[in-house]
Amino acid sequence: MLEIADLAIDYPEFSAHYDLLVPKGALCALIGPSGGGKTTLLHAVAGFGRPPRGTLRFEGVDLTRLKPAERPLSILFQEHNLFPHLTAAQNVGLGLDPGLRLAAAQRAAVDAALARVGLAGLAERLPAQLSGGQRQRVALARALVRNRPLILLDEPFGGLDPGLRLEMIGLVDQLRRERRLTVLMSIHTPEDAADVADLMAFVAEGKVIATDTPAKLLAGARHPALDRYFRRAPLGA
Amino acid sequence: MFRMFALSVAFLATLGLTAPQAVAQSDKPTLTVYTYRAFAGKYGPGARVKERFEAACACTLDLVQTDDAGSLLARLKLEGKDTKADVVLGLDTNQTAEARAAGLVVPHGLDTAGLDLPVPWTDDSFIPFDWGWFAFVYDSDKLRNPPASFKAFVEAADGPKIIIQDPRTSTPGLGLMLWVQALYGDKAGDVWARLAPRIVTVTKGWSEAYGLFLKGEADMVLSYTTSPAYHVGVEKKTNYKAAIFPEGHYLQVEVAGLVKSSEKPDLARSFLRFVLSEAFQSAMPEGNWMYPAKVPQGGLPASFAGLDKPQKSLLLAPEVVRDGRRAWTDVWLGALRR
Amino acid sequence: MVPGLLALALVLGVVAAALAGLALAAGPSLPVVPWGYVGGVVAFSLWQALVSTILSLALGAGLALALARRTRFAGRTLLIAAMNLATVLPAIVVVFGVVTVFGRAGWLGEGMRALGFDMGSWLYGLPGILIAHVFFNAPLAARVFLAGLAAVPAEHWRLAAQLGMGPLAVFRFIDRPVLLREAPGLAGLVFLLCFTSFAVVLALGGGPRAATLEVSIYEALRFDVDFGRAGVLAALQIVLGLVLVLPILRLGTRAAEAAATGFVEARPDVEAVLPKVLDALVLALGTGLVLPPLAAVALSGARALATLAQPEVLASLATSVVVAIPAGALSVALALAFAGLTRRLRIARARPRAADAVSLAGLVILVMPPFTLAAGLFVVLRLVADPFALGLPLLALVNALMALPLVLRQVEPPLMLSAERYGHLAESLGIVGTDRLRLVDAPLLRRPVIVAFAAATALSLGDLGVAAFFGSGEFVTLPVLLHQRLGAYRMDEAASVALLLALLAFAFFILAQHFSGDGRAGDR
């Protein structure tokens, strides 16, 4: 279980206050307007930026005292997930040893992870020689070899076309079921995640305004901010 | 790339361990003489002096160099009782009072009669080894009518442009300040004020000043009456001359002394005797480009033969210089800063 | 963090030890300080340093922009390498070079006279000081600015081209932020270099009107042998220098960069007329200022070229190289440790004030007068060992420290940039220490590090070496040999040593450019 309670972060120009519970093994999609605080929430969980006040626990472990690399999680950004001067295999290998000193077994694990995300044979390519989708697959492969129980995805597939986006989300879903991973993913296109997410949280104005199953949140949960987000008329208007 | 740094650090450490030891390994005694670099270095008389002294003393002469005469005294003072020096060679009379006051030297006990010095020598702590007159040097091809006296030099409003050295950083610079002081006393400030408009620049050291002069930046430069000897002896040029002033020229006398803490005073004393000997003195003129304290039997070299010589010499007593220098420097600064 | 703290401790420790050594040598009596004189000197020092800094940065920025826009013209590589030579030449050689060109009987004056104009004597005073300081520092500024411009991500150029930005817009939105980002740190460095400049200010300043505090410190050590006064004046200079520079460093506001990386992209303002004219003018001005004095040095050096074959020249050459290369490497290593620490404080710890303080500490060595550093260290080292047995390593260490501020200026910006681009990723993967340098920072760092290494090595080559102050004379480096020849009337032979120094440094810079891949390439 990922527990986020009373988690407050203050920036000069922005302050946020979050409450959210994600059961173990669940996939929770974060939706909401740009600038609403989705990335801030993910960064707080990952350990970037100003340290927050409040409760942030995973499986009962307090995360706030841990350095980013020590937290039981991997994070994927929208871009810059890969170092442009390292090959796909090297980028994945960083997940096993941050100094890239890999034993034979670890190299095998890298190849297996690349194969699992559908990139067998592309291990020696540089990021510039891969497509956008392939680059995110490399990042996913790295998350796999790191073998952390929580995965954070910050608009990971925003730059991809709709078909590819669905395919990638499907891959994430498969992987989390295989490995019992908890996933927290922000997404601009809520309908893409509707079928795979167990939980959907609407984040705006620095708060988690509503949490529910995707079906209910997309259909019925009524809130002015949510209405504005979906551009529908408020109830009773 | 980063391995390189580790290697370089290791390399440095190795250098430290293998740095050559200054002391020669032998049963012969070693006499340590502190001197300035120009004396001991490639172009100075040091090598010849070492060779000639060692030929007779059954000892090793270790010439330890400092940057210049200024740091020679500073180093002796810093090392105090622990100094390795037996003899210090290369201070001048402007520094001897400081060295004596700091208790760095002991009387040499040598007979200094018969010196070829233009002033009587009575100092019992130091013996002179060479000397020279400060003078303004000019290119006689360019400056046809150099001033004939210090008075004319000072008073000619459109007289020659000059380059001098700062008395706070340079021995000749200090020499000129004392020269003016010796000639004019309380009026020194006025003299400096009159000279000021014709001073092209004031440099940190002799090299800058002389180099700028050779590049044609000024008509005259503060140097020594012996400077033309270099141009005659080495370059075969006779156009460089020193202007001789009948009022007198200030002297620089370079001296050597016996360091108080020396454990080999007898050997040190024998070196001081050697300093006044033919073997040492004959190395001075074309080694240090100064007059020897005792003219060798063969006389001065040919390059010195044609040099003009002042008739009168000026030299303030070391203690007078020590007491007055600060105030005189302020006068100098006041006149030139305006 | 640990290497950074060690580097910080080393720098501060050396300075503190030197001051403590002077205090120890001085004894208990309070030194007499000529406050009135000091006040006047400081006022002039400030004035000339301020003007020198502004001019150096202005010309440096112009040169950097011109070189960034004009990526291929005949002699570009040579010009960049030549510009760097100014830093390595001993001050006295630069004075001679400047005077040969701009002096009373110099090329410019004689040329104008041939055309019927008599320029009279205009050099000595502020003009001479400014020419020499701009000669020293404008190329330095250009080098740092150029590195900053080279790190602009390709996306920005694509965007600029896409939006149809004109040259003014390109300058306003892309170049200016880069220049402003680098300017404060650079200004601090140049200001301190000029504030403490000594031989140049005296020789070209025309007299004691133009002097710096260092003259008084020198006097206190050499003639008064008053260690207390030297120490107090040195401390005063350190405090003054740092107090003056702190606000300059504070001006620095780094806009966090959130840009992507990519491949080399052409600037869109290359073909426009206005930049073409400006670049031509700036390149002409820069070339006209930098090359003739260097040519003068080369010409006078050529007159006694044969003396370079003498065994003592070869011995000095070997000594210099043996000192300079480890010194350059050590300097770069120290700078990386230092910059790593400031980066951590600034970004991960969000402690910009602490980061500023550490940056400032990296400059301390600049305001420490070399002779007080030497004398003080001498006293302290004598307590534990024979300073002369430490010989070459000590010389290399001190040279490395002297070059540190310069190197820091070149490696700090790319390290920050790398943190802005990959900081989060590296942190989340736990890539730290040398792994981070090797795997994350290396692409952005490689070029600046190679160039900085060349610069630091060249600087050590040309440095007289403060260890020479009390040196045992066993180690005659090239600059020492040069001064020996000057002191022995051998001006042309000295110039040939200067020429050798310049050629050696030139070779270093050409190699550095070759190995770092010249051009505007950002990441590859």
TrEMBL record, chain A:
Pfam families to which the protein is assigned, alphabetical: ABC_tran (PF00005)
Residue ranges constituting the ABC transporter domain according to the UniProt record: 2-230
Domain of life: Bacteria
Keyword Cell membrane set for record: yes
Keywords associated with the record: ATP-binding, Cell inner membrane, Cell membrane, Membrane, Nucleotide-binding, Translocase, Transport
SUPFAM superfamilies with a match to the protein in the record: P-loop containing nucleoside triphosphate hydrolases
Tagged with keyword Cell membrane: yes
Family under the similarity heading: Belongs to the ABC transporter superfamily.
Protein name (Swiss-Prot/TrEMBL): Thiamine ABC transporter ATP-binding protein
Provenance organism: Chelatococcus albus
From TrEMBL, chain C:
Mode of membrane association: Multi-pass membrane protein
Compartments where located: Cell membrane
Transmembrane segments: 35-66, 78-102, 122-145, 186-206, 227-249, 280-301, 313-338, 358-381, 388-408, 449-482, 494-515
Classification via InterPro entries: MetI-like, MetI-like_sf
Record flagged with keyword Transmembrane helix: yes
Major place of residence: membrane
Keyword line: Cell membrane, Membrane, Transmembrane, Transmembrane helix, Transport
ABC transmembrane type-1 domain span: 42-248, 317-512
CDD domains associated with the record: TM_PBP2
SUPFAM superfamilies: MetI-like
Pfam families recorded: BPD_transp_1 (PF00528)
Family statement drawn from the similarity comment of this UniProt entry: Belongs to the binding-protein-dependent transport system permease family.
PANTHER family associated with the record: MOLYBDENUM TRANSPORT SYSTEM PERMEASE PROTEIN MODB, THIAMINE TRANSPORT SYSTEM PERMEASE PROTEIN THIP
Name of the protein this chain belongs to: ABC transporter permease subunit
Lineage, highest ranks first: Bacteria, Pseudomonadati, Pseudomonadota, Alphaproteobacteria, Hyphomicrobiales
